[in-house]
Design a protein that fits this description.
alpha/beta, eight-stranded parallel beta barrel, 12 helices
């Protein structure tokens, strides 16, 4: 199909009766991708500029400038904002976990720092963020471990998760609060995420949803695995949000670096996968309250640096030139 010969529908408007359609952005992309963002997305997430190391690199010194620019862009274009992320083992400065001598900080001091950070950030954007990723990636990938051995866990124990949600809820009682993780549809990790979230629900912790990062690819996970995961999380009576969606053309184990452009087979498989994914997500629109892509177009994606540094990837429905790909037409049902 020659997309230039037909009117291209707005992606968010196609799904306005299902769920918001979001994109992760940064200080550069809100300028370079402005037209694409305004036409096709009605929700934004900051890719990196609202993580702890970006907002409070030095204790007590908050740097909100880049985040504020995103909010100004969102406000001007009538977009919603998801908050990402308050507590994570990565992109958190060392000072959180150290005392003035460089030794491990006390439990009491770390809790105080956690509350101060969460309270300051959440209150600043109170009423402007509809959902927060409160705790990100706390589950271990080691099949013999439950929680990741992070500094948060090492010093505070498992309670750090509940405390983060309590602090966030106190700062903004109206925001929906999410636990967010990857490999969320892999059977073993699915059960660990479910166990964690259920324990929080059972304790009366103010958690409102599960964030499925959805860093999927042409081969994994299967549609059945995703369906099972959606059913399992939905059984907790919480919201589900797709928080960081992309569809890599490479399997995780694939380390080849020879491709300068995607093969025809890759693009055809990607079209099919996107169609299957969105057909499934539409089935669960009663519990899915947002779908966010982790980027805007193939011109820039974190997958160009991970897991193979410098390797190009083409995971989105918009290409390097911001033109719609055939996968776009699949998810707007324009065959």
């Amino acid at each position: 199909m020659n997309e230039k010969s037909v009117e291209i529908p707005s992606l968010w408007s196609v799904y306005q009766n299902h769920f918001p359609i979001g994109a992760a952005v940064n200080d550069i992309s809100i300028r370079s991708d402005k037209e694409l963002l305004v036409k096709h997305f009605n929700s934004l997430t900051s890719e990196n500029d609202m993580k702890p190391v970006s907002l409070q690199p030095v204790e007590g010194v908050f740097t909100f400038e880049k985040a504020d620019k995103m909010f100004a862009f969102a406000d001007k274009n009538n977009m919603k904002v998801r908050g990402h992320t308050l507590i994570w083992h990565n992109q958190t400065p060392d000072w959180f976990f150290e005392d003035e001598r460089g030794a491990q900080v006390s439990k009491e001091k770390l809790l105080s720092r956690m509350e101060s950070h969460i309270s300051t950030v959440v209150k600043r954007y109170k009423g402007r963020i509809y959902s927060w990723d409160v705790v990100n990636e706390a589950i271990s990938d080691d099949e013999n471990e439950f929680l990741r051995k992070s500094k948060w866990f090492e010093i505070l124990g498992e309670d750090f998760i509940a405390k983060a949600f309590e602090f966030a809820h106190k700062a903004d009682p109206e925001a929906s609060l999410f636990y967010n993780d990857y490999n969320e549809c892999h059977p073993e990790k699915l059960e660990k995420i479910y166990r964690l979230v259920k324990s929080l629900v059972d304790k009366g912790v103010p958690i409102h949803g599960v964030g499925l990062q959805a860093h999927w690819n042409l081969f994994k996970p299967t549609i059945e695995d995703i369906r099972i995961a959606l059913e399992r999380y939905a059984s907790l009576g919480l919201q589900i949000q797709i928080t960081e969606m992309d569809v890599s053309v490479f399997d995780w184990e694939d380390r080849r670096t020879d491709l300068k452009e995607p093969t025809e087979q890759m693009l055809e498989m990607q079209e099919q996968r996107y169609e299957e994914f969105f057909d499934l997500l539409k089935e669960y629109r009663d519990v899915i309250t947002s779908v966010t892509f982790w980027g805007v177009s193939d011109k820039y994606t974190w997958l160009s640096d991970f897991p193979v540094p410098g390797r190009k990837n083409w995971p989105f429905v918009f290409d390097d030139n911001h033109e719609v790909k055939n996968s776009f037409w699949k998810i707007v049902n324009q065959k």
